[in-house]
From TrEMBL:
Belongs to the TrpB family. It comes from Oxalobacter formigenes OXCC13. It catalyses: (1S,2R)-1-C-(indol-3-yl)glycerol 3-phosphate + L-serine = D-glyceraldehyde 3-phosphate + L-tryptophan + H2O. The modification N6-(pyridoxal phosphate)lysine is found at residue 94. Residues 60-384 form the Tryptophan synthase beta chain-like PALP domain. Pfam families: PALP. Its EC number is 4.2.1.20. This is Tryptophan synthase beta chain. Keywords: Amino-acid biosynthesis, Aromatic amino acid biosynthesis, Lyase, Pyridoxal phosphate, Tryptophan biosynthesis. Tetramer of two alpha and two beta chains.
Length: 400
């Protein structure tokens, strides 16, 4: 099984039946160009050394694993550990793939990087990477997310990127993707659309997965070193799926390790206000690839919702769809209410303010710790910090 995962996707970008390049024929050559350039840098010692140096000296990798002792005692069961991606420069895992894509843009001689953002973490990380590499950057963001994630909006402006407010449709992530893609289509030869997760047409799901796999490589080694065994459960939140695939990939061949992806159940799976794509979606095409989708009978994406802007997406990475179907990863959903509870508990009991996205995974660990029992361990990918959410939470809870 291990070999099978390492060789994925196939040459056309498929993980089983999911992924591929569902794009207009005129874009095929451009995507193939990106795929070829990526294979070149993937095998280039110079490129990999440059990226690895930036991971160490710019991002601050390796991110530590922290034993959440007080949270464990509170829940009374399995020991809970946190992989601290929140401590990375710019505050989340997104910087791992943004640096990779910015270096690729430089390698390909691109003149502008375009990206979408939901919570603003990918936008800040991309604007940061572009400032570092010296390439103009344009970020598309829904108006609702702009209001909600104000600290990240300010940061993107300070970093010198051109921020485009998206006022159409849902005014959230899905429409930000559409808007960014339209801009990209104006000059795909000279622009790079730096996708913010393991989604989009081939080679993006593969490329972003590879850049994020550093998280699982470090985590597996760190956990073994510290505990002399592998974790029993590894869990991460799933929006498009980049932080989850980042930590899962290295553990995929370890059959004793249960992998659990956490989707946003929003106001409840029995309401329309959720974004639980793998739990309730059907197969379809979105943004250039095949995946599970929350869609209507005509195949149009449904409006989705989560308290966490970064999880608010009607599709999901093709590798997650494949891993769900073969049963290697289990997908569960956590409500806004459970997420908020985890957000406050972790803040007040461990002094760590998690991103609302990451709080979904923390909530799952809190939920299952007791039934797992004290001889078991859970490793949570704490994908980002919650500074960006502080104002929103203060208003939401009426504590400002
Ligand atoms: C902190 C954090 N975690 C998770 C996500 C979800 O993205 P993905 O599923 O690609 O990791 C986001 C997206 O903005 C994020 O900001």
């Amino acid at each position: 099984m291990a070999q099978e995962f390492l060789e994925m996707p196939d040459k056309d970008g498929f993980f089983g039946e999911f992924g591929g390049q569902m794009i207009p024929p005129e874009l095929k050559a451009v995507m193939d160009d990106i795929a070829n350039a990526y294979e070149e840098v993937r095998n280039s010692r110079e490129f990999q050394d440059e990226l690895s140096d930036l991971y160490t000296h710019y991002v601050g990798r390796p991110s530590p694993i922290f034993y959440a002792k007080r949270l464990t005692e509170r829940q009374g069961g399995a020991r809970i550990f946190l992989k601290r991606e929140d401590l990375n420069h710019t505050g989340a895992h997104k910087i791992n793939h943004c640096l990779g894509q910015a270096l690729l843009a430089k390698h390909m001689g691109k003149t502008k990087v375009i990206a979408e953002t939901g919570a603003g973490q990918h936008g800040v990380a991309m604007a940061t990477a572009c400032a570092l590499v010296g390439i103009p950057c344009e970020i598309h963001m829904g108006e609702i997310d702009i209001a909600k994630e104000h600290p990240n909006v300010t940061k993107m402006k300070i970093l010198g990127c051109n921020l485009i407010a998206v006022t159409r449709g849902t005014k959230t992530l899905k429409d930000a993707v559409d808007s960014a893609f339209e801009e990209y289509l104006k000059d795909p030869k000279n622009f790079l659309y730096a996708i913010g997760s393991v989604v989009g047409p081939h080679p993006f799901p593969k490329m972003v997965r590879d850049f994020q796999s550093i998280v699982g490589k470090e985590a597996r080694e760190q956990f073994l070193q510290r505990e002399n065994k592998l974790p029993d459960v590894v869990t991460a939140c799933v929006g498009g799926g980049s932080n989850a695939i980042g930590i899962f990939t290295e553990f995929l061949p370890d059959e004793s390790v249960k992998l659990v992806g956490i989707e946003p159940a929003g106001k409840g799976l029995d309401t329309p206000d959720h974004a639980a794509t793998l739990s309730l979606g059907t197969k379809g095409t979105l943004h250039g690839f095949k995946c599970y989708n929350l869609q209507d009978e005509k195949g149009n994406p449904l409006p989705v919702y989560s308290i966490a802007s970064g999880l608010d997406y009607p599709g999901v990475g093709p590798q997650h769809c494949y891993l769900k179907d073969i049963g290697r990863v289990q997908y569960e959903a956590i409500t806004d209410e459970e997420c908020l509870d985890a957000f406050l508990v972790l803040s007040r009991i461990e002094g760590i303010i998690p991103a609302l996205e990451s709080s979904h995974a923390v909530a799952y660990a809190m939920k299952v710790a007791k039934e797992l029992g004290p001889d078991k361990t859970i490793l949570v990918n704490l994908s980002g910090r919650g500074d960006k959410d502080a104002d929103f939470i203060a208003n939401y809870l009426g504590i400002n």
